[in-house]
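User: Write out your own:

AI:
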Amino acid sequence: MKTAMINIKTEKEVKEQAQKLAEDLGFSLSALVTASLKQFVRTREVQFSALPRMTPYLEGILGEIEKDIKAKKNLSPVFTNAEAMDAYLNGL
């Protein structure tokens, strides 16, 4: 197999993060780029996906919510109609 070198420009931080992630997964960045190029040629499609990641701020809020649920505090009752909901909210 003959190889060719491809030079690309990207932000240094992006390259470093990609190399670290590839290493964590047991791959070289070169192997991942090659696999991506082969898939592009084979399928003629480009797919991007990333698992959503919560920010530390959101994780903190969700942690507080979980504590409130376990402590059964800051919870609203179940409403059977809009009038009951309005009465509850107006009473807060």
